[in-house]
């Protein structure tokens, strides 16, 4: 089976990223810095040969993908399965507000781990399963090609764990950065990591660390 390569990138920095607000299925616009990150990413990807540009249908990912498409000429294909985890009652709140308003639910999330379904939302397990299903489908559809997928930190993180067989329960000891380039290959039914967190297209200090909800 021919190798398929998927360049997976997190969206550019958003207003809620810098304010520490949990986004989930909600949205906030890219900051000025986030737009600059996306444009620099577009210039970088213009030097890559890829056949399709996919994106989560959430605004911050689409806005990032648009900056790529403006440079490369690719049309954007959105897929809701590439969305971030639905954070339910935690969405639109920062850590202090979550601990104040939903202390019990926050504690349950910590003790029950990836299988905990946030009220009004979903579990990490549910999120990662739908992400993987989508990426497997794209790999099969684009055999022998390279494609670009614009998505979210939780998606990038979960797929990294899946590829390297790192348990969802294991503490995160890696970063996922805004507009960082992560390249995965699918061959003979297996995923392999080729590149992780490449931000050479950004000026020093232009990337921001990923943060978990």
Structure description:
The chain is of the alpha/beta class and 213 residues long. The N and C termini lie far apart (38 Å). Residues 208-213 have low confidence and may be disordered. The chain has one domain (4-87, 122-198): Phosphoglycerate mutase-like (Rossmann fold, 3-Layer(aba) Sandwich), CATH 3.40.50.1240. It has helices spanning 15-19, 32-45, 59-72, 95-101, 103-112, 124-141, 153-164, and strands at 4-10, 52-55, 76-78, 146-151, 181-187, 190-198. Helices cover 38% and strands 17% of the residues. Helix 2 packs across helix 3 and helix 6 crosses helix 7. The protein is globular, with a radius of gyration of 17 Å. It contains 7 helices and 6 strands, in the order βααβαβαααβαββ. Strand 5 and strand 6 form a beta hairpin. A 6-stranded mixed sheet has the order 3-2-4-1-5-6, sandwiched between helices.
User: How many beta-strand segments?
Assistant: 6
Radius of gyration: 17 Å
Overall, the morphology is globular
Please, how many domains? 1
Beta percentage is 15-25%
Measured between the Cα atoms of the first and last residue, the distance is 38 Å
**Fraction of residues in H or I helices:** 25-40%
The CATH class turns out to be Alpha Beta
Secondary-structure element string: EHHEHEHHHEHEE
Provide the CATH topology. Answer: Rossmann fold
Number of helices: 7
